[in-house]
């Protein structure tokens, strides 16, 4: 007890004396660029445990990125970097969800169609509270993604909140996820074609072109392009899809950042394939990233009428920079803007792509690819808009901008 009292007194009195000298030095040169070097020098010389210089630099690097307070920027370990490359290829083992860190919660952007998450009924906007019993609060997106992925056939337990309701723990069986961009392509009613594009994985533009060409051959005179719960994917495929509907030279989207490389404008480089085809695009809160680029481009150029609800608002662009030791720096380097300069990024004041006709969304019921007539309100409204319309101009006249 006596020794404890003496130690406590030393921590208070002696600690203050030691600190006061540091305060004097710091006050003499506030904000100097030598702060990091000073801290590392003291840790090397004075810290109770030894720490290798390489380990100190690694921890400092992770700390730098973490302190950016940007959910999309991260210093990736070699394993996380490998998983990012797997995901962009459209083939990985997991449960099939796209996630975001929004309002401090790990939030589902959308489940990928036909995956374990989709089969379990997970919806856009659901918040993940726990993965295998471990709370997600304070975790980075990469850490949560790492926890959700694993060997095909293995199980993962998740707890989600939907609105104010906590859903009982779900058991999902991981499997090899392969993105199939085109989910459905049929003639609905009255010569109106319907295509469901689930992701912008590899070949999305090519598959959509083939599907619409086939529908046209079968007599389709108008088109519903369903991008609901499409969380995006590859930028190049979003550009390829928009290119099918726009004229050469028209702006699809642009990015703006601090460096010349981050400032880019993406333009259509070929004549549109179906210039006489009236188009309605369906979007909702699960439409993100490349879906928003396509929807925004077609809306800005008056090429399509958007029906549904506001999109997710994933308007930032990340770049990958290889780093030492097999790591990579994933860094937000730009923001996305539509052809007319509208930001896609959602914030406290709004954002995302706002449809021309705003409706309460209904999920498309799972099925075997056979689309019943008007299975939900959104498709019913799209069919109503397209019924009897012969040209894109007639469709546009039915829905003045801002209606």
Helix and strand run: HHHEHEEEHEEHEEEEEHEHEEEHEEEEHH
Task: Give me the Rg, rounded.
Answer: 26 Å
Number of E-type strands: 19
Strand content: 25-35%
Characterize the structure shown:
- The protein is α+β, with helices and mostly antiparallel strands and 403 residues long.
- The protein is 32% helix and 26% strand.
- The chain is built from eleven helices and 19 strands.
- Strands 3, 4, 5, 6, 7 and 8 form a six-stranded antiparallel β-sheet that branches. Strands 10-11-12-15-16-19 form a six-stranded mixed β-sheet, sandwiched between helices. Strands 1, 13, 14, 17 and 18 form a five-stranded antiparallel β-sheet that branches.
- A hairpin with a 2-residue loop joins strand 7 (155-162) and strand 8.
- Helix 7 (204-217) runs parallel beside helix 8 (235-245) and helix 8 packs parallel to helix 9 (290-300).
- The longest helix is centred in the first third of the chain and has 27 residues, at 2-28.
Features:
single chain, 403 residues, alpha+beta, 6-stranded mixed beta sheet, 19 strands, 32% helix, disordered N terminus
Topology:
Layout: H1 2-28, H2 35-46, H3 53-66, E1 74-76, H4 78-89, E2 91-94, E3 97-102, E4 105-111, H5 116-119, E5 127-131, E6 134-135, H6 141-148, E7 155-162, E8 165-173, E9 175-178, E10 182-187, E11 192-197, H7 204-217, E12 222-226, H8 235-245, E13 251-257, E14 264-267, E15 279-283, H9 290-300, E16 305-308, E17 316-322, E18 328-338, E19 357-358, H10 377-386, H11 392-398
Parallel strand pairs: 11-12, 12-15, 15-16, 16-19
Antiparallel strand pairs: 1-18, 2-9, 3-4, 4-5, 5-6, 5-7, 7-8, 10-11, 13-14, 13-18, 17-18
Helix pairs in contact: 7-8, 8-9
